[in-house]
Design brief:
The protein has about 140 residues and is of the alpha+beta class. The protein has a domain of about 70 residues. It contains three helices and four strands, in the order H-E-E-E-E-H-H.
Length: about 140
């Protein structure tokens, strides 16, 4: 298992320029990595999970950025996925929580439980010290 970190996404100021640059780096890196895995016939043996530990606020702040919020995207890429699709509901910008943040529709712990149980084939209840539902992507 390998972990790679791409920092700089904590954009409280001048967000558009920074996000465009960072998402371009992310896109190019993932694209190259997947092509390399496919070329070496190892894509089916690989599960790529990318996420951020926090979401962003919906409302822009005074510094042309956004502050920490709720709800975020998790991207899962691999050759053995059952179906490529979005598993969450579309964000509803008119249905925000009491802090003005997005309401999430998929609990990240169900993603972890699914990966632990279906990819690593270990007891997710024991590792997470709780029982969470599973998604059907692996």
């Amino acid at each position: 298992m390998h972990f790679i970190s791409l920092g700089g996404f904590d954009t409280h100021t001048n967000q558009n320029k920074a996000q465009n640059r960072l998402l371009g780096i992310y896109n190019d890196a993932i694209d190259s990595f997947v092509k390399d895995l496919e070329d070496n016939d190892t894509f089916n043996d690989t599960l790529i999970v990318t996420f951020s530990e926090f979401g962003r606020r919906v409302k822009q702040n005074a510094a042309d950025g956004t502050d920490h919020g709720t709800a975020n995207n998790v991207f899962i890429i691999g050759g053995k996925l059952k179906k490529s699709k979005f598993y969450n509901e579309d964000p509803n910008l008119s249905d925000l929580d009491d802090n003005g943040d997005l309401n999430y529709s998929v609990d990240f712990r169900t993603i972890y439980a699914t990966i632990l149980s279906e990819w690593f084939e270990v007891d997710d209840n024991e590792i997470l010290d709780n029982s969470f539902g599973k998604l059907k992507f692996i």
